[in-house]
Amino acid sequence: xxxxxxxxxxxxxxxxxxxxxxxxxxxxxxxxxxxxxxxxxxxxxxxxxxxxxxxxxxxxxxxxxxxxxxxxxxxxxxxxxxxxxxxxxxxxxxxxxxxxxxxxxxxxxxxxxxxxxxxxxxxxxxxxxxxxxxxxxxxxxxxxxxxxxxxxxxxxxxxxxxxxxxxxxxxxxxxxxxxxxxxxxxxxxxxxxxxxxxxxxxxxxxxxxxxxxxxxxxxxxxxxxxxxxxxxxxxxxxxxxxxxxxxxxxxxxxxxxxxxxxxxxxxxxxxxxxxxxxxxxxxxxxxxxxxxxxxxxxxxxxxxxxxxxxxxxxxxxxxxxxxxxxxxxxxxxxxxxxxxxxxxxxxxxxxxxxxxxxxxxxxxxxxxxxxxxxxxxxxxxxxxxxxxxxxxxxxxxxxxxxxxxxxxxxxxxxxxxxxxxxxxxxxxxxxxxxxxxxxxxxxxxxxxxxxxxxxxxxxxxxxxxxxxxxxxxxxxxxxxxxxxxxxxxxxxxxxxxxxxxxxxxxxxxxxxxxxxxxxxxxxxxxxxxxxxxxxxxxxxxxxxxxxxxxxxxxxxxxxxxxxxxxxxxxxxxxxxxxxxxxxxxxxxxxxxxxxxxxxxxxxxxxxxxxxxxxxxxxxxxxxxxxxxxxxxxxxxxxxxxxxxxxxxxxxxxxxxxxxxxxxxxxxxxxxxxxxxxxxxxxxxxxxxxxxxxxxxxxxxxxxxxxxxxxxxxxxxxxxxxxxxxxxxxxxxxxxxxxxxxxxxxxxxxxxxxxxxxxxxxxxxxxxx
Length: 768
Known about the structure:
Layout: H1 2-17, E1 23-27, H2 34-41, H3 51-63, E2 67-75, E3 78-85, E4 88-95, H4 100-108, H5 120-136, E5 139-140, E6 143-151, E7 155-163, E8 166-167, E9 169-176, H6 183-187, H7 211-227, E10 234-235, E11 239-243, E12 248-256, E13 262-269, H8 277-282, H9 294-309, E14 317-325, E15 330-338, E16 344-351, H10 358-362, H11 375-387, E17 391-402, E18 405-414, E19 418-427, E20 431-440, E21 449-456, E22 460-469, E23 477-489, E24 493-508, E25 512-524, E26 526-527, E27 532-535, E28 540-542, E29 551-564, E30 574-588, E31 606-619, H12 621-624, E32 629-641, E33 686-699, E34 704-716, E35 723-736, E36 739-748, E37 760-764
Parallel strand pairs: 1-3, 4-7, 9-12, 13-15, 16-18
Antiparallel strand pairs: 2-3, 5-8, 6-7, 10-12, 11-12, 14-15, 17-18, 19-20, 20-21, 21-22, 22-23, 23-24, 24-25, 24-26, 25-29, 27-28, 29-30, 30-31, 31-32, 32-33, 33-34, 34-35, 35-36, 36-37
């Protein structure tokens, strides 16, 4: 009997599962479409009914993570899948921490986002990640409460209420066993540092703990010892002892300094055709007999890679062999160079540019698909992108795609290039002042520089419009146009000018640029107060102190040659800027309304203005392990005109202020027509100035530096040395969100009676 029943069940089962599927239906689906569900089930109409296949399809659905329950009904040849979906997160927010980007970053650390399916374990994990993230930022005793509110039938809103606790302050750093190096040296590069005196002030170290960086700080201390030649130094992991009553902490390191090594011998092993080993060795910054410095060794390896890379090798390997001798306290180095296979560029891939167009970036990349790799071209490309001023950060890496081909990965972080400003004020002399401007060095990401602005007060009006396309139609040519209208009432004259320039330029040999242009100025300066001072026996003459009644038109022809191979637009650390500019001007207009002096100057004519500038920049970090930048800047200008041709005073040269000698009022230094009258300013024809600066970092986070300077300038009518002045001071250099701002605090060193000195000036957006 049992055998018969078993055979019957086998027969019925075979008949059941031999049946074909005639219809498939899904009910309760919201997250998946019908076609997507079919793909997941992996069952089609026409397939045979099979229990194992149906069970596997149910498992497939559960693996998607969308469903609480899945079951199947069979009605004849139809399969009906029933789904009970998990509820989704319709909204998620964080309260008690902050809004804007800070809240968004914290929310991103949870791994949850709007549209995700609600799961208790994921919410619990998100809560733990919030607490962990805040602890990494130095907050302890953080409390997070999660609130859930239903939204409709199938979704919920989540709210994380954060009480971020207290910040841990590091009040003491202990380097137990450190004798050879000072605490300030050891602590300088650490993420966690002892709280400074008045640490709450800007640019001072607050001592706030960064727990996520503690594990790496011991390696940073070890690296400091390696920079000073202590190759055997041992540094323990930091131990942070926290008083949770006051939320203050001490951090302890145990240090074994060991022997300090000098460099014994340095050798280079290589077999690359066209590369001279002696030349490579002369490039090295780490010298025999000096104390070993791991940072200089790394820089030497980088320079060797670059030099060999100039021969087409992108994946050069520099393997340093180090042989220490504790008895002699020396270390011998041998750099083994493996050049690898020459490679070509397959493609250039650009990322990070949300505004700047790809074609604008490619203008400054000197390697293109199909080119042979060259390390110098790679470095020059990075520097050229830095010189544009469009980017805050530029990184160029290689990506190997085959044995002899690579992609260049150009990653950039865009800097703010556009500014909109409006303001006003009141001055005792200027009265009510209003100003507004809009400018962008990279308008719409096109690489074009454009600006429009005006200044209006009781005594002045100034309108300006400028436009520069540095790469006209993506060529090597540039085009600049500027128009301006300005009127200013000085104490004894009113300057009134309308002018503009049009300049066409071209780039040569990567670093050079030449340009020619035309300029026009209509000058209608007027004397505010004329004074009769005497006559020469035949006629009365008028000495117009300051500026004459200069009413003239000037047409100019410009020619310029410049060189620039610096690595950054605003803060170069290497390279040179040099330029020579010639302006040939032809003046036209009425002669003087009255004869000047003895009448030797007959009227307007022609003159030549020759100016030159030089800037040298040198970063000392590779030599002294400190981001000190040395700068030398020089300028000179000479005006040349015929003996009997009048040169309008508005065209002559003055000195003082930013760009010449700081510490004196702008344009206040000038030869006098009457040495006894300080108001008889007449300008000079020869001017030169030089500046020496040393710039040091003040706050990396705030992008601030402090520059100490010494200025020296000369000015004269016939000789450079007629007027000589100097000054010294400091400049607070700030790369702000509104552009570079320089705050100048200067002291005139050799001012004379009558000089107008200035202890404070500021500038915005200037270069050189």
